[in-house]
Amino acid sequence: xxxxxxxxxxxxxxxxVRILAGDVAILDGISLKLEAGAPTVLIGPNGAGKTTxxxxxxxxxxxxxxxxxxxxxxxxxPARRAIMFQRPAMIRRSAAGNVRYAxxxxxxxxxxxxxxxxxxxxxxxxxxLERRPARRLSGGEQQxxxxxxxxxxxxxxxxxxxxxxxxxPAATKAIEDIIRTVTARGVKVVMSTHDLGQAxxxxxxxxxxxxxxxxxxxxxxxxxxxPRTQEARTFIAGELLV
Length: 242
Description:
Elements: E1 12-21, E2 24-34, E3 40-43, H1 50-58, E4 65-70, E5 81-84, H2 95-105, H3 113-123, H4 139-151, E6 157-161, H5 169-184, E7 188-192, H6 196-202, E8 205-210, E9 213-219, H7 220-225, H8 230-236
Parallel strand pairs: 3-7, 3-8, 5-6, 6-7
Antiparallel strand pairs: 1-2, 1-4, 8-9
Helix pairs in contact: 2-3, 2-4, 4-5
């Protein structure tokens, strides 16, 4: 994978973003600046707005009010952005076929696809499984294949929605290792998680959401050792936010 200059879509700015579903605010006045560097991790209880924020930041959801800009532009095609959903669907093809499909969708020239398939499967630890039907892979392998498909876009910004949900520790570690690798190559990762340990392990910055509102955003070490808000202290302690 090539080193990416993320300046094209960064900083990613959300300014007073509201997204309504009927009369319910899914995101309520979110202002946030995401810059190049270590991963930004979104945490918060179910229904906090994490997935909605990721989809909006990708450009998949229109905002009801407020503004999102990528690299200072209000309109930016998502060619340099990719998203992996919590439960990505596997296409009825081999592992290599799934990546080939993603490369075609990303308009990678046909004569370069075989080499990129080999590289991407190696990047996610799936070398040797090129011909395995994707739906016969284990849950952890399917998540890594979904990551390979996302990386087929060679993104500068990579959004991950609960990428290790329901995975065992070994599979979780494999995903976290990939996140560290792509971060070292210049990809800005923005991910959601319910796992506070994971937020500590991979997060450069932590953003706590609750009921669609941004409660606190801080460098990870500061967030976990010196939280500013009572909601953050409650959440870190493992208690319920209501």
